[in-house]
Amino acid sequence: MPEQLNETLHFTKNWQQQLADAFNNIEDLCHYLHLSIKDLPVSEAAAKNFSLRVPLSFAASMQKNNPNDPLLRQVMPIKDELNIYPGFSNDPVGDLSSATQIGVLHKYQGRVLLINTGSCAINCRYCFRRNFPYSDLQLGKQHENAAIQYINDNHDISEVILSGGDPLLLNDERLEKLIQQLSAIKHLKRIRIHSRLPIVLPARITNEFINSLTKSAKQIVLVVHCNHANEINTRVIAGFTLLQNKGITLFNQSVLLKGVNDDATVLCELSEQLFSLGIIPYYLHLMDKATGTGHFDVPETTAIALIQQMQNILPGYLVPKLVMEQAGALSKQPINFPIQTITLKDN
To answer: What is the pLDDT of residue 330?
Structure first.
């Protein structure tokens, strides 16, 4: 069957079926992209440490015959992951020390994060939780009541963040039940969902899913994760249109990655594309220093220079905040840099 026809049939399937069909080995992904494994520094050992998983919807946005494609670089296991980099660790942002109980991270004032699942639709190679002990700390069904009670008992919590893994891998029934339980807590103001699925598996954005969000009396905020404008295809656009039409507040956060988006033109195009879809460019993160990710690291000085270039090109509302996360800090830490000044010449 022709490749194009295979893709057409694939995208008629529901999101669970599309997820089940995701690429999970290096050879198949290279074959689809018309690449020889010899052209890439691939590593089966790296894939054993952290498995390959790439939905076709994301792979279809990659450039064929391009071993340096910025989307491919985000997902392909390579030998550099096996290198040891100073300052990199298995828990770079202090998640473990902020776990108040199973599935609950309470590191910021007024906000609590729920680890709803350890699974993702895509395994990003730069993931800061790639070494997280999900088997011990994810919020299974049996622990949800205790987590809800913890939030109910702590009246200083005004916002709950659903995280993971990816919380949108929960089915509609379970997600709706969780949102309803949270919505019943009077002192909560917002429920925030952090998800990569609207980008990598846009079939997840269904009317049924959106209805489960709009039933809540609380304000729902969806923070998506897009690193490069090439990730935004027609299926992604269709999903965002559905969300925007229902009044869901949309933000984006990106991670600054060497060889992916460490270029001012690339970052400006991403901001423009996002805003055209009703998505506010929110954060640009310096990468969290997780074991196996050092080859993606961009120096802080380079990051500052990129943001300054963006400020010279874009209106301020399209320039994301440059931030980093530090273990033990009470919020994301802004990266401060000197304000550029212009000296006016005398006539």
So the answer is: 66
Q: Say how far apart CA 337 and CA 232 lie, in whole Å.
A: 31
Residue 170 tokens, joined: 């929960």
How many of the other CB atoms lie within 10 Å of CB of 302?
A: 14
Q: What is the pTM of this model?
A: 0.92
Fold of 96-334: TIM Barrel (3.20.20)
More confident residue, 131 or 206: 206
User: For the chain, percent helix, then strand, then coil, each to nearest 5?
Assistant: 40, 15, 45
At 242, which amino acid appears?
Answer: L
| Residues whose CB is less than 8 angstroms from the CB of residue 42 and which lie 6 or more positions away in sequence, other chains included | 26, 30, 76, 77, 78, 79
The token duo for 65 is 């015959």
Q: Are 203 and 14 contacting, i.e. CB atoms less than 8 angstroms apart? A: yes
Q: What is the C-alpha to C-alpha distance for residues 240 and 232, in angstroms, rounded to an integer?
A: 10
The amino acid occupying position 249 is T
Task: Report the helix count and the strand count for the chain, using DSSP H and E.
Answer: 14, 10
pLDDT category, 108, cuts 50, 70, 90?
A: confident
Determine whether 27 is exposed, middle or buried from the number of CB atoms within 10 Å of its CB (0-12, 13-18, 19+). Answer: exposed
Mean pLDDT computed over 3-31: 91
- Please name which of 74, 132, 84 lies closest in space to residue 291, comparing C-alpha atoms: 84
**Domain residue ranges in the chain:** 3-82, 96-334
Note whether 255 and 227 are within 8 A (CB).
yes
- Whole-angstrom distance, CA of residue 122 vs CA of residue 131: 15
